[in-house]
Amino acid sequence: VLCVDAIQFAPRPAAAYRELRRVLAPGGRVALTCWEPVDRADTRVPGRLRQVGLAAGLAGAGFTRVEVTERAGWRAAERSMWEEAAALDPGDDPALTSFHDEGVRSLVIFPLLRRVLATATAP
Q1: Which strands, in side-by-side order, build the sheet including 2-4?
Q2: How far apart are CA 11 and CA 44, in angstroms?
Q3: pTM for the full model?
């Protein structure tokens, strides 16, 4: 199962991790990418991201061989994208305006997050 930058949107994260486990056959692998807060207590980080803890979530759902690694290269590429978005002049294009605004918001909290990849095995 592959879950890219989505687990933080689950209204009940524990249920989402359990569902990942449910759909996998024994020995199946899951890979998730996400942002995790550097400090979960930092209220500048949006609540949906403060709740992310991939290692604990996967272990709590019964996965084994749980590994979470930071992805510095991914982080650098994403920062570049948000810098480009924040610098562009969107004119009156609603899609570009949305992209620009998200870039501005993302850069504000960027130093407060770490980019991670988690993998785990279904028992």
Answers
A1: 2-4, 29-37, 113-121, 64-70
A2: 20
A3: 0.86
